[in-house]
Design brief:
Length: 379
């Protein structure tokens, strides 16, 4: 049986005559006055507010705030607030570099290409590299359990707390080490330095260095770092001259050579001083090698020359502070070394620092750094 709708589908099409429509009557012209009611007004106002809000939101979306993520470093966010610290820190270095290479200073200096790159592009990349390095360092500290929060917001909170602590200490008459108040960049540097020291200490405390390793390092560095230099006793003859008078200088040089020849021949400094009277000065000098670099009582030239002399040795005349000097070593310093056990901690710290530097180099080489669209909006 054919169903109704199927049957209708197979019926032949029949032509139908289309009736001619009657021409409609023209309406009388009249003026339409629009008088919106209260509901219409509310709808229009709401639409305007929505449109304005969307425009503001679009503007805020493009604005870079401290919490705007400009890059991801090994999965950790690098926000604009932290990144901008490096923009500020590196600005002088980048400008000096471009100017030294021949770039012209001017109103549009930062956006004028020089050797294929603008200074601002170089600044952005330099800041990104340094910020990424700091972030990797923070990640290492977090992985070692030294810190739990490595966000920029956490840093700002710590910065404010430290300045508050300093203000309270000052108000209470307590000693404050360092500045009374840190600016943001200075406190960031302090914070990163503390992280570095903490990581190195963690490595040193969790790495089993053998005595052989430590002794090899001790023997390699003891002359440079672990010397206990004793006192040096000297006799010094000084031959003064008038620096503005070439003839005076020439005469003093000749006199110094003459005195040196007599001293080298066995004459005592005291006897030489008596022979030449007030033309020269003779002085006994004792040098405490543990304090000499802090007290600055003698010139570096005298100290260096004294360290080269053995007991009984005499120096050739040398020029120092506008005078000729000749030294005789009465007693050379007796060199001893700090015991190995006393400097074990220093040696452990050095080896731990080497490991830290190797770890940082490897981490930087394999770092996953991905900039976001916000990074491109930094102008």
């Amino acid at each position: 049986m054919i169903k109704r709708y199927e049957r209708d589908m197979i019926k032949p099409m029949q032509k139908k005559e289309t009736p001619i429509p009657k021409e409609p009557k023209k309406p009388r012209a009249r003026t339409i006055r629009f008088a919106p009611d209260r509901r219409t007004v509310v709808i229009i106002c709401c639409a305007a507010v929505i449109i304005a809000g969307a425009a503001v939101a679009a503007g805020l979306k493009l604005r870079l705030g401290p919490s705007t993520v400009v890059a991801w470093v090994n999965g950790e966010p690098l926000t604009y607030g932290e990144y901008s610290l490096f923009m500020t820190a590196n600005r002088s270095k980048i400008s000096s570099d471009f100017l030294a290479r021949g770039a012209k200073n001017g109103a549009n200096f930062w956006n004028t290409a020089f050797e294929g790159q603008t200074p601002f592009e170089a600044l952005k990349q330099s800041a990104l590299n340094d910020a990424a390095k700091s972030k990797i360092q923070q990640i290492m500290a977090k992985n070692d359990g030294l810190v739990s929060d490595i966000s920029y917001a956490g840093f700002v909170k710590g910065w404010a707390a430290e300045n508050k602590r300093r203000a309270l200490a000052k108000a209470g008459g307590q000693p404050i080490y360092g500045p009374e108040k840190y600016d943001k960049n200075a406190y960031y540097d302090v914070n990163q330095s503390n992280l570095t020291a903490g990581i190195i200490k963690y490595i040193g405390g969790n790495t089993a260095f053998s005595d052989d390793e430590l002794l090899r390092l001790y023997d390699r560095e003891k002359d440079a770092k672990f010397v206990n230099a004793g006192d040096i006793s000297l006799q010094m003859i000084t031959v003064p001259f008038d620096a503005a008078d070439d003839a005076s200088r020439t005469a003093a040089s000749g006199l110094a050579d003459e005195i040196y020849a007599k001293a080298a021949g066995g004459a005592e400094f005291g006897a030489i001083a008596q022979d030449y009277g007030d033309r020269i000065q003779e002085t006994d000098v004792d040098i405490d090698m543990q304090k000499v670099y802090f007290e600055n009582a003698l010139s570096q030239a005298v100290v260096d020359m004294a360290q080269r002399l053995k007991t009984g040795g005499i120096s050739a005349p040398f020029l120092d502070a506008g005078e000729y000097r000749i030294l005789r070593c009465v007693r050379a310093a007796e060199v001893t070394y700090q015991p190995f056990e006393d400097v074990r901690g220093v040696l452990v710290n050095e080896l731990a620092t080497e490991i830290y530097n190797e770890d940082m180099s490897a981490a930087l080489a394999g770092a996953d750094i991905r900039t976001t669209a916000a990074f491109g909006r930094i102008r």
